[in-house]
Design brief:
flat, 0% strand, 3 helices, mainly alpha
């Protein structure tokens, strides 16, 4: 009996992906955040996203210039 539920659950998750993507796009996301969150939490979320983007950019640059990769200890 557990098998059919797992299949339905996987299909539902797969079908929801385009909706989730749409919900994460600019205007729609801002609308949802304004309706569901307080201004402080929205600023915190935006700050976390900027920090994440900066970290990804720094990692990409360090890989381009041959710097240490994340998780690797610097050579002594």
């Amino acid at each position: 009996m557990a098998r059919p539920r797992q299949g339905r659950s996987a299909r539902a998750a797969k079908l929801f992906r385009p909706i989730a993507w749409l919900m994460q796009q600019g205007p729609y996301e801002r609308y949802i955040l304004r309706r569901m969150r307080e201004p402080d939490s929205i600023r915190l979320l935006e700050s976390a996203r900027r920090l994440h983007e900066q970290t990804l950019a720094q990692r990409a640059m360090s890989r381009l210039v041959g710097g240490p990769t994340s998780g690797a200890a610097p050579a002594a």
